Amino acid sequence: MSAFVVEDDTINRILTWLYHETQSSNGLTYGRVERVLRGVGHEAHHILKLQLLGKAMFDLNVRAVRERYEDADKSGMIPADFQFRFVQTNPVVSLKSLHCWHYQCCEGTVPEDPLYKAFETISQDLATGIVRALPEYEQAPWG
Predict the structure, then answer these.
(1) What angle do CA 24, 29, 33 make, to 5 degrees?
(2) 58: helix, coil or strand?
(3) Overall domain count for the chain
(4) Could you read off the pLDDT of 96-112 as tens digits, one per residue?
């Protein structure tokens, strides 16, 4: 298995979706995302808090790469820092970005980190929300 630090826009797609999701009480996750994030000391409904979350996600990814490769810093694998910005995205694109980031963080002790585990829950909630929004799901029989 290999690992790399994802591009800023990978994290930014996740953050942009999180921000919009937490602005709506009728989002795809019905407010669950905000509760999950608060459970690990983060929030996504305010830009400054979103920036802190993005930095924490970046740091977790960097930690995973460093735990995978002893020479990660010397080899230039670690970017200088993370830069937050809102980007164009949609729930499906954000889910794929979340899957990418999550996979790149699954090295060493990182999978035991509460933030990593929180994003497992968020990923499942987002995927479920996407499916529930499909016409086929709505038309399927209940029970």
Answers:
(1) 85
(2) helix
(3) 1
(4) 999 999 999 999 999 99
